[in-house]
Design brief:
six-stranded antiparallel β-sheet, mainly beta, Immunoglobulin-like, single chain, 155 residues
Length: 155
């Protein structure tokens, strides 16, 4: 991040995949050690920035992570989530319902390798109960970024 003067700053944000939502937490500090976060405390709230077309790419800068669409979608009874990491990194992959409640955690902080990772979801909650038809969202958190995509379970 660099200063543009007059309390304005500019930074580079890694280019996410198109048609996804990325959430950022911003923390700024001055030379005297004072800090200010946006939002003030993390992670009480996230700011969503939908990416509709590739506008944030910087030539020569590889993407940190990419969350791919699940296959199949719609699905019954199972689907596969896939994501790519530029470097090995801890990751969390979880599924939440339309109300935002977490129904299943598929990866919980494990170090995932660089390259493609695939995780199958059987359409069940964390207690092994089959979930009803509906729209579910799967979220990948890694490298300080959060990516979310929808998925449709049809019974």
């Amino acid at each position: 991040m660099g200063s543009l003067g007059d309390d304005l700053y500019e930074g580079v944000i890694p280019a996410p995949a198109e048609d996804t939502t990325v959430e950022y937490y911003i923390l700024a500090a001055d030379n005297e050690g004072r800090q200010e976060g946006m939002p003030r405390t993390a992670p009480n709230h996230w700011y969503d920035f939908p990416i509709l077309r590739q506008t944030t790419g910087v030539p020569g800068l590889p993407t940190v992570a990419r969350l791919l669409p699940n296959r199949p979608n719609p699905f019954n009874p199972s689907t596969t989530f896939s994501f790519e990491l530029r470097d090995p990194a801890p990751a969390r992959l979880f599924v939440h319902d339309a109300r935002g409640r977490e129904v299943r955690r598929l990866i919980d902080g494990e170090i995932c390798p660089a390259g493609l990772t695939r995780v199958e979801w059987d359409g069940c909650d964390s207690l092994g109960r089959a979930l009803p038809s509906g729209i579910y969202h799967f979220t990948l958190e890694t490298a300080g970024l959060r990516y979310t995509r929808p998925s449709v379970l049809v019974k």
